[in-house]
Amino acid sequence: MGLRQGSSSGSRFSIAIVGGGLGGLSLAIGLIQRGISVQVYEGATDWTDAGAGLVFAKNSMAAMKKISLDIYKAFAKHSSGQGWESKKTTYMDYRDGRTDGELVTSVICANTGQESVHRTLFAKDLAALLPDRTFHMRKRLVGIDNRPDGGYTLKFSDGQSTDADVVVGSDGIKSKCRQLLFGENCPDAIPRFAREFAYRGMVPMERAVAVLGEELARNSMVNIGPGCLTTTYPVEKGTLLNLVACRSLDRWEHDDWVVPSSQEAVQKDFAGCGPVMLKVISMMDKPAMWALFDHPECSTFYKARFALLGDAAHASTPHQGAGCGQAFEDALVMCSLLADEHVVLPEHIEDAFAAYDAIRRPRTLKVVKTSRENGEICMMRSESTGDDLDKIKATLDQRFDWIWHEDLDQQVQRARTKLREVSKARQHAVAVN
C-alpha cells in the first residue's frame, strides 16, 4: 500500500509524533496509510551514525510487515543476515571469550535467523516514505501546554509552536516527552544506569576478515567473559562489521553519557581476555565509552491523549537484541488501535491509549528486565549460572523464545478487545453520571 501525498484528511483528529527514530517513523507510516493525519518532529539537525548497527529477529520483521510492507522493503534493502549459508537460521553464536573463541552454543531462530541493519540508513529510507511537509527536522521539543479542548500545544527550541489533538513521544531514552508526562523529578522519568558501559565501532568487512578470519567476521557472535563481553555482526549487506564491547561498572561518574577514550584504555579494560575478544577490541580506532542506561520501571505509558512509544517508554540494554524490535510492535498495536472503528473522535483517544498501555507495558518491561539479566549471564555475573558454561548454554538456548514467537495478530486482537472493554466502561460511567 503506497503512501498518499500530503496530509491525510480522513481522520477527525491530528497526531504529533515527537521523535523521528525507527519507532516514530514506523508509527507515522502506519497511521498515514490508515488515513490518520500525522506530523513528525525530530530534534536533530541532521542524520548521524548514532546507534550504528541494530539486530532483529522474526517478531520484529513480522511487525514491520504488518504495519506496512513499505517498511519491510526499506529494511530488506539494507539488512544483512549471517554470512554463511549453513548459519542462516542462527541468531547468534555464543563463544567463550576466555579462550580462542570456543563455541558455547549456537542459538537458533527458525526461519529467519538474525537480520541486522545500519540504523541511520534504514531511518533515512523510512523518512523518505513520508509525504512532503510531514517530517520536520531541527524541531527540538521544550514544552507542551494543555489546550482547553483537550489537545496540546507543542513548543520547540526555535520559538515556534504547533497544535495537535494527540501527542506520541518517541524521542528516545533521554525523552523530553517522558519528562513532561511524569515531571522531571519523578523517578519514572529518569533512566537508570545499567551498571555497564560499551565501546562501539564499525569497520569494513575486508578488515574484519583480515583480523578475525572468515567465519568469525561474516557471522554474528557474542564472546562472553567475566565482567565483559563483545558482540559483532555484519551490517549493510555484509560490507561492514558492527562492533560492541561491554564492560561492567558499578557507578558512572561522568555527567555525559559518552566520554572519549583511547585504544590504550580499551586494552586495559579487557586485559586478560582471550585472543578473539582482544582482536575485536583492537579494531576500535576512535573509542568512546558509552554509558548504558535503561527504563526498568514505568507506572503508565500514557496520560490522557499523550503516550510514549519505543525507547521513550521502555529503553533496554542491548543484550537480547530486542529493544528496537519492541518499538515496531508498539507501532503496530498503536496504529491498529487508533485506526479502529471505535476511535473516531479526539475524546476516544484515551480509550485507545489505555488499551495500548494494558497490552504493551507488561511485555516491554519484561524485555527490559530480561535483557539486563542476559547481560549478567553473559558477563558471568548471574547467581543462577555464574561461569558454568553448561548452565549458560541451557539458559541461552531457550530464553529468547517468548520474544520471538509472539503471535502478533493475537496481540493486536487482545488490544482491540481491551479497547472495547474500556470504551464500554467509559460510556457506562457517562450514562450513570
Explain what this protein looks like in three dimensions.
The protein has 433 residues and is an alpha/beta fold. α1 runs parallel beside α11. The chain is globular. The N terminus is likely disordered.
Concise synopsis of the structure shown:
It is built from 15 helices and 19 strands. With 433 residues, the chain is of the alpha/beta class.
Summed up, the helix count is 15
Number of strands: 19
Radius of gyration: 22 Å
Which whole number gives the mean pLDDT?
94
- Low-pLDDT residue spans: 1-9
Q: Could you say which structural class the secondary elements and strand pairing correspond to?
A: alpha/beta
Main pleated sheet = 8 strands, mixed
Strand order of the largest sheet: 5-4-13-14-15-12-17-16
Percent strand equals 15-25%
Measured as a percent range, the helix fraction is: 25-40%
Oligomer: single chain
Specify the overall morphology: globular
* Alpha-carbon distance between the two ends: 44 Å
Secondary-structure blueprint:
Blueprint: E1 14-18, H1 22-33, E2 37-41, E3 53-56, H2 58-67, H3 69-78, E4 90-96, E5 102-108, E6 115-118, H4 119-128, E7 135-136, E8 141-146, E9 152-156, E10 161-164, E11 166-169, H5 176-182, E12 192-204, H6 205-212, H7 214-218, E13 221-225, E14 228-235, E15 240-248, E16 258-260, H8 263-269, H9 275-282, E17 288-294, E18 302-303, E19 306-308, H10 311-314, H11 323-338, H12 349-378, H13 389-396, H14 401-404, H15 408-432
Parallel strand pairs: 1-2, 1-11, 2-7, 4-13, 11-19
Antiparallel strand pairs: 3-6, 4-5, 8-9, 9-10, 12-15, 12-17, 13-14, 14-15, 16-17, 18-19
Helix pairs in contact: 1-4, 1-11, 2-3, 2-11, 3-4, 11-12, 11-15, 12-15
